[in-house]
Amino acid sequence: MTLALAAPTAFDPAPLLVVWGASALLQAALWVVAVRTRSANHVDLGWALSLLGAAVGFAVALDGAPAQRLLVAATGGVWAARLSWHLLVDRSLGAPEDGRYAALRARFGPRADRSFFWFFQAQALLAALLAVPFLLVARHDAPAPAPVQWVGVVLFAVAKLGEIVADRQLAAWRREPANRGHTCRRGLWRYSRHPNYFCEWLIWVAFALVATPAPFGAWAWLAPAMMYLFVTRLTGIPHSEAQALRSRGDDYRDYQRTTSRFFPWFPKRSAGAPQPTDPASRSASSPAATR
Prior knowledge:
- 65% of the residues lie in helices and 0% in strands.
- By secondary structure, the chain is an all-alpha fold.
- The protein has one domain (15-258).
- α1 packs antiparallel against α5 (112-130), α3 (66-92) runs antiparallel to α6 (132-139) and α4 crosses α5 (112-130).
């Protein structure tokens, strides 16, 4: 005779509180660095490192089945590690303050340092909330991944590849001096003004799919919902497009008229000026990063 394990009847948030506390301390330390360097770029690195710690920590310390904890490390851990390295090299080591944060600094005025402290702390709370899918999977006791989890893994790989392609198209476009002042409409950037943000959001959809079979798995869908809100309405696309309009003017307005804002779709015809005949594509960024 065997006894089936009862499904948990209550959600235990204790690991998320640990992530929140550790992230709050990390962001406080990075805020001190930001005050000294006059650059808030470090908040993005703190956000990514917090999620890296959550994914790896949950995979190592929690009591889910080994296959489930491996899924957390292979998706959330790999994603957060790559993002952390990118933000460290590209944003935190001597780079000028990102335009989004420069605009916030100007808006905050004399109270910028104090306001940025709370902004950094808000990112610590966001990291804890976004760690929910990692927690659910790392506690899941199914010995083998369910089909929907494999769908999530495949989507994660496709979205990650799409993000890498978009980043490389950006780098190739920016290397060409003739492209200055122009918006490229080639590659992935022909079908979406922000394919990097779209792929980043798909990664969070993948995390939610991987967490869906776990107890309380429906809660995991709050993560892609929050990311969609932040990327499309708050910190991502609005700031990116405002900066693009300041730097590229009518060329970017034409791009807005012809190209889908977020979800990839076929472009409309335009009577705008012809583009330079150079390779690849246009802009990128992380949520937070990110993003």
